[in-house]
């Protein structure tokens, strides 16, 4: 529930920011800075909630030693790295290092949270053992669609928006912006591609299972 509320607020803030910035470089909106102060405690909370869930799961399974911080970090290294990058890299960039530029792109990054409510609902349905219901399958499709649009296509969209304003084609944009911008975007999109592949594999297993049973 907390993750879904945060996602709705972040997505709403992103939409407002994007619609308010006529210029993708110099356009300004106060939410681009102020919402970050809400993002910081959420990321800290989410990291703690992940640890608490893993600890409860390990305790309930009653297998081997209890969960240690080292084991938790090892099992969730990618997600923890993702949270750490947001807190220690993206937050300073968004709040001070970028100066008064790029509110539009901050709004785009906020939009990446649109898929979170569907991911959360999927986990709730799994806990309720509703994996074979129509709701679970429809939610899975919506998860894939929103994740692909707002976490992967988001980056070509930002390049396209900049190119349209500067009179450049999408293919020309990477060569007309600072190299570190391309590197930063590559680091941001890489884990999203990995997670999207995992979601696709899960979806394939979900929709293949009934047919496999039928064939068997």
TrEMBL record:
Membrane spanning residue stretches: 35-57, 78-98, 104-126, 138-157, 177-197
Localization in the cell: Membrane
Highest taxon in the source lineage: Eukaryota
Topology class, membrane: Multi-pass membrane protein
Residue ranges annotated for the TLC domain, each copy included: 1-208
One Pfam family per UniProt: TRAM_LAG1_CLN8
GO cellular component: endoplasmic reticulum; membrane
Protein's recorded name: TLC domain-containing protein
